[in-house]
Specification:
The protein is 69% helix and 0% strand. By secondary structure, the chain is mostly helical. It has one domain. It starts with a helix and ends with a helix.
């Protein structure tokens, strides 16, 4: 597939997800579920991880548009992203969870970016974590690409850092992280055994 064609697919998928996410944040204002555990409460707040947290979009775009070159892998990955977005949207509506926000109490550049992040991304809709879901989907689909497979270990390390960032920035709970990994696994399985297998057999 051409870079332009892949960019169009990614743009439509990303806009769909963002439109759904921010629409739900606007209309679902009742935060019914606090999923905090004792472990969540002892995890320290580390604002420096905000730089890791915001690598999700550039790495997603680079991987999908540049690194993954096979059409069957790319379209399967897009399918998995769409399925994951739909499932997360359902959870955000029927299971509105939230992370109570506390004052940051820091005046560093990292803390300022955390404040800006929180202004854009409210405390609602934590379960499951979109950051974790999408980062682990990349790990799984990189493994199907001949060009990218050799970097899978790096993607796995990055996905672990993304998951860690959601916890130490107090954006998500532990259950949000594990549910994100589980959702990524399910969506990968569905896309791989439908779209990927059909396109591979057609070729």
């Amino acid at each position: 597939m051409s870079v332009r064609a892949k960019a169009r697919y990614i743009l439509v998928t990303l806009l769909f997800y963002l439109a759904a996410y921010f629409s739900i944040q606007s209309f679902i204002t009742v935060n019914e579920y606090n999923l905090s555990t004792d472990i969540d409460r002892i995890i320290p707040f580390v604002p420096q991880f905000v730089w890791v947290y915001h690598t999700i979009v550039p790495i997603l775009l680079f991987t999908a548009i540049v690194l993954i070159q096979r059409k069957d892998v790319f379209l399967s990955m897009i399918t998995a992203f769409v399925i994951a977005s739909l499932i997360m949207s359902v959870f955000y509506v029927v299971f509105p969870s939230f992370y109570p926000r506390e004052p940051i109490g820091d005046y560093s550049l990292s803390a300022g970016l955390v404040e800006l992040t929180r202004m854009v991304d409210g405390p609602s809709n934590t379960f499951p974590s979109g950051h974790v879901t999408f980062s682990w989907l990349l790990v799984f689909f990189v493994g199907l690409s001949e060009q990218a497979r050799k970097f899978k270990w790096a993607y796995a390390l990055w996905a672990i850092l993304i998951a860690t960032s959601t916890l130490v920035l107090k954006q998500h709970f532990i259950i949000d992280v594990f549910s994100g990994i589980l959702l990524a696994s399910v969506c990968y399985f569905l896309a791989k055994n439908t779209v990927f297998e059909r396109l591979r057999q057609a070729n």
